[in-house]
Amino acid sequence: MASDTSNTTVTINPSEAAHFGTMAADWWDPRGSSAMLHKLNPVRLGYIRGQVDLHWSGNGTGFTPLAGRTALDVGCGAGLLCEPLARLGAAVTGIDAAPENIAVAEAHAASVGLTIDYRAGGIESIGDQRFDLVTSLEVIEHVSDQAGFVRGLAGALAAGGLMILSTPNRTPLSRLAIVTLAEGTGRIPRGTHDWDRFLTPEDLTALLDAAGMTVVDTRGLGFSPATGFTLGNSTALDYFVTAIRR
Question: Which fold would CATH assign to domain 4-167+202-245?
Fold first, then answer.
């Protein structure tokens, strides 16, 4: 379990929070500034569902494999992942550094009849709460203290829980595809990524290990114009990591 000191580490990068807050109004527009996240969401959910079923011995056929469990999504934006997790049966808490995103998330959840506990803040704002599932997708590359962030995530995980993270790899391919091409052509808003903040799978595994976590699965996330985003063995572009507490 993370110490009290680690949980009080300030991980929010104010400039990053402000950048993502400017996207709040059209976060749910599949053709807006978050269009790439909309395209990515089905693959994310497929990976999460597979890991949930594996961890809690699900059969892959039920509609609510997270029924009776709590989930925390850190860096939730306007709720693109929180809402599907709620539909999978979880009692969901979503936190985000940008208050603008939280306002949009709350309004959208209300409009579709979902009850989700949204909060503006960082992982350090969770306090003593613990969750069965902790997710944080494409977030760690934007925080000010990556080691402190991972310790905070680990501290929020309940005994027997599951943590799932994703982030771009720090490779020449990710620089070309994400920064040069995607941002350069406007598919992702310019200035969204700092390639030097990307973590390799080895980097992230080391941070998780230092926080008392064991990585049990690493899966690559790839993209092609023909098939879109897909899961695979190559982590050269982006990847998922699943971890449990030692």
Answer: Rossmann fold (3.40.50)
CA distances 27 to 76, 105, 143, 236, 239, Å, are: 11, 9, 20, 27, 23
Give the SS3 label for residue 244. strand
- Model pLDDT, residue 191: 61
From residue 210, alpha-carbon distances to 29, 119, 142, 145 in Å are: 39, 27, 20, 14
Beta strand pairing call for 91-96 and 117-120:
parallel
* Residue 69 φ/ψ, nearest 5 degrees: -115, 160
- Beta pairing partners, 231: 221
Query: What residues does each domain of the chain span?
Result: 4-167+202-245
pLDDT of residue 201: 97
Q: Taking the model in full, what pTM does it have?
A: 0.88
Neighbours of 29 (CB within 10 A): 12
pLDDT along the chain (246 residues), means of 10: 41 70 80 84 96 94 95 96 98 96 96 97 92 97 94 97 96 80 68 81 98 98 87 95 96
Work out whether strand 70-74 and strand 131-137 pair parallel, antiparallel, or are unpaired.
parallel
Q: What is the DSSP string of 57-113?
A: T--S--S-TTTT-EEEEET-TTTTTHHHHHHTT-EEEEEES-HHHHHHHHHHHHHTT
DSSP string, 130-148: -EEEEEEES-GGGSS-HHH
